[in-house]
Amino acid sequence: FHPLLVLIAPLYWIWPDPRMLGIAMALLIVASAPAIYLFARKRFSGLAALLATAAYLLWWPFQQLVIFDFHEVTLAIPL
Fold it and tell me: Which InterPro entries does UniProt cross-reference here (predicted)?
């Protein structure tokens, strides 16, 4: 049992398809990008913050999380 799955249940009720889980994982990873950008912008220049955010989003393990099976641990990334 994973309590974070409760957050995805409403999306699954809207579209009961396994692809919804992958879309939700991708959206949650992307939703954390503004926080990374704001954090980096306080410490570096705007370009460096943008590059750090791009590196975060293009990081190989995140790409593999989205491409392959559903992992409930992905739901904790924006937290």
Answer: STSV1_Orf64
